């Protein structure tokens, strides 16, 4: 029985890109354990309007005090340093727009159905944190779909509707109701959880612990 790891994350969360790379490294560190990695949606700020908002203005409001600005600067530098070690090219200065991430989560949902969830996550993280693209824009999402070999016409048609909005919202609601308040969070077999972009070594131990304590079979 594989260990099912559900990574709950947001596509506008820089720690989540780091967390994705680290969980993938952790999985490679336990080759004797079969792991199925699934990506689940979480919006850090679902109040963002559908069209998004100016990024710099949003960040000014979010980190308005001198102390908060200092923390934000330190966090960015830490991410840049961690990113260099993980070959993640953060370019925060390129970001000009803070999108609503719902439609990006819909794209991941569709990609995951085609076994391309990891490719979609990686492409979306890179588009936002390296290229400074608006991943709430349907044209950008269709272009990313094309990059990962999803049918861009089908994706464009789906994005023009409310397809799977209810499904994605329901998943988000579930994870909030079970107590997740920060991402990335990893859930193994719906039994064990680890939160934060932990080191690959710690995540590998987390995976092995889950493998050694499988869910009880239903009677």
TrEMBL record:
Residue ranges constituting the DSBA-like thioredoxin domain according to the UniProt record: 5-207
GO MF terms, alphabetically ordered: oxidoreductase activity
InterPro entries membership: DSBA-like_thioredoxin_dom, Thioredoxin-like_sf
Pfam families attached to this UniProt entry: DSBA
Protein name, entry field: Putative frnE protein
């Amino acid at each position: 029985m594989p260990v099912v790891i559900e990574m709950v994350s947001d596509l506008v969360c820089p720690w989540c890109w780091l967390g994705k790379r680290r969980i993938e490294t952790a999985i490679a560190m336990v080759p004797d354990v079969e792991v199925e990695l699934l990506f689940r949606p979480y919006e850090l700020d679902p109040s963002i309007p559908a069209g998004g908002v100016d990024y710099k203005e949003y960040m000014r409001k979010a980190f308005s005090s001198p102390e908060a600005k200092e923390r934000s600067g330190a966090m960015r530098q830490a991410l840049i340093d961690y990113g260099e070690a993980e070959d993640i090219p953060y370019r925060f200065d390129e970001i000009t727009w803070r999108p609503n991430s719902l439609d990006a989560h819909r794209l991941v949902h569709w990609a995951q159905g085609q076994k391309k969830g990891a490719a979609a996550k990686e492409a979306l993280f890179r588009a936002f944190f390296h290229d400074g693209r608006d991943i709430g824009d349907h044209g950008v999402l269709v272009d990313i779909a094309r990059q990962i070999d999803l049918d861009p016409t089908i994706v464009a048609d789906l994005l023009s509707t409310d397809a799977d909005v209810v499904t994605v919202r329901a998943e988000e609601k579930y994870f909030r109701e079970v107590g997740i308040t920060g991402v990335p969070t990893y859930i193994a077999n719906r039994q064990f959880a680890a939160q934060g972009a932990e080191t690959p070594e710690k995540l590998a131990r987390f995976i092995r612990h889950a493998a050694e304590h499988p869910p009880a079979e239903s009677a």
